Amino acid sequence: MTWNPILPVWAVVIIVLALGALCVVTLVRAPDRARRRDWAVRAFVVLLLGIACLRPGIGTSSAATATNDVDVFFVVDTTASMNAEDWDGAPRLDGVRGDVMALAEAHAGARFSLLTFDSEAQLRVPLTTDVSALQSAVTTLRPEITGYSSGSSISAANELLEETLERAADAKPERARVVYYLGDGEQTAREDPESFASSAELLQGGAVLGYGTDQGGPMRETLSGFATTEPTYIVDRSTGSDAISRIDEPALETIASQLGVGYQHRTPATAVQAAAVDPTVLETETGNDVERAFDLYWIFVILIFLLLLREVWVLTRAIIELSESRGARA
User: Fold this and answer.
1) What is the tens place of the pLDDT at every residue in 46-79?
2) DSSP state of 281
3) Closest among 233, 152, 140 to 185, alpha carbons compared
4) How far apart are CA 199 and CA 287, in angstroms?
5) What pLDDT score does 134 carry?
6) In this structure, how many other beta carbons lie within 10 angstroms of the beta carbon of residue 268?
7) Which helix (H) or strand (E) holds 41?
8) What is the structure's pLDDT at 296?
9) Which UniProt keywords apply (predicted)?
10) Beta strands in the chain (DSSP E)
11) For a designed S-S bond to 260, which of 17, 200, 267, 316 qualifies (C-beta 3.0 to 4.6 A apart)?
12) Burial class of residue 70 in the structure, from the number of CB atoms within 10 Å of its CB (0-12 exposed, 13-18 middle, 19+ buried)
C-alpha cells in the first residue's frame, strides 16, 4: 500500500478531526434517531474524504532507477486548439497524454514536472519522482474552458519555465535538465511570441513535439463542470462553419531552435523519441523497485458522491416538509 497525499498529512488530519468532531457533537445532541443517523453518515463522509486526500494506492513494478539522473520538464499546450480532432480522429491532447507517459517511462528514475499553458501558465506538478502523481495530472488534463478563452500565445509558459529551471538548477546543479514542449504552434494572441532562448543555457537536452496536421481538424468546445448541455464544435464567426485548427510547424521549429533542441512532428503511427542525455550525468542502477501505484482514491470519491446524493435527498425532503408545514399553518 502506498500513500501520496494531495495535502500535507498534518493538514488532512486537522481538517478531518475538526469536521469529524463537529459531526460527533451534533450527533450526540440530535433529538431523534433519524437525525443521529444523518450525522453518523456525515461523519463517515468526512472519514472517506480524509482517506481520499491521502491518495492510497497499491502495486509496484521493477524498473531501472537512477541515483544521479535527470529532471524532466513537460510544457503542455492546453489551449482550445489542442482539442482539434486530427490525431487519427481523436483530440490532439490524447496524443500528448500518451507521449508524456511514454517519455516518463523512457526516463525511468528521473524527477518529473508538469507545466501547462493556455491564457496563462501553471505549474501543475512540481518536481517529483512519483510517476503516479504525474499520470494523475496528465490523465485529467483538459483544454481551457472555451468561454474563458481570449487568445493565447505559444510562449505563454516562457517565464514560468525559466523560473522553474533556475530553481531546479540552484537546488541540484549536478542534475541534467530536459524539457519537452508539446503543442501545435498555433498563435492566437495579437502580439508576437517571446523567445525561449533564455532557458536554453539551463538545459542539457529535450525536444519540441508538434501535434496536428496541415489539413487540421474541428474543435469541440470545453464546458465548465456545471454545464448542463453537451459540447458542440467551435464555430468560425467569419464563415459560420466549424472552425479548423492547423499545426504551425515553422513556429514550433523556431521554439526548438531557441531552446537548442530537436523537433519531432508527432503522429499516432510513430513512437515518440526520448532526448539523448549526456551519459556522464547518469548513474543508473537496474532492478530496483520504482513505485508505480494504482490509485484507489477514486473508490472513496465515488462513495462520497453517492452519500452526498443521499444528503441532497435528505435536505430536499426536509425543505418540502417545511414548506408543507408552513402551508398548513397558513
Assistant:
1) 999 999 998 888 865 544 444 448 999 999 999 9
2) G
3) 152
4) 34
5) 94
6) 11
7) helix 33-53
8) 85
9) Membrane, Transmembrane, Transmembrane helix
10) 2-3, 56-58, 61-62, 65-66, 70-77, 111-117, 121-128, 176-183, 205-210, 217-218, 244-245, 262-265, 284-285, 289-290, 294-295
11) 200
12) buried
d(CA 175, CA 166): 12
Place of cell 486537522: 14
**Number of helices (H), then strands (E), in the chain:** 8, 15
The residues, any chain, with a CB within 8 Å of residue 263's CB and separated by 6 or more, are: 207, 208, 209, 210, 249, 252, 253, 256
Is there a contact between 112 and 76 (Cβ–Cβ < 8 Å)? Answer: no
Those residues of the chain that have pLDDT short of 70 are: 59-68, 150, 225-228, 278-293, 327-330
DSSP letters along 63-75, please?
--EESS-EEEEEE
Report residue 76 as a C-alpha cell: 503542455
For 75-102, b/e burial (b = at least 16 CB within 10 A) is bbbbbbbbbbbbbeeebbbbbbbbbbbe
Tell me what pLDDT residue 145 has: 85
Residue type, 176: A
Q: What is the dihedral of CA 220, 223, 228, 230, to 10 degrees?
A: 10
Task: State the residue for C-alpha cell 463542470.
Answer: 225
CA-wise closest residue to 182 among 98, 301, 119: 98
Given a contact cutoff of 8 angstroms between Cβ atoms, the answer to whether 157 and 121 are in contact is: yes
Q: All 3 cell numbers of residue 138?
A: 496528465
- 3-state SS of 305-325 is HHHHHHHHHHHHHHHHHHHHH
Is the CB of residue 124 less than 8 Å from the CB of residue 160?
A: no
> Nine-digit cell at 103?
517519455
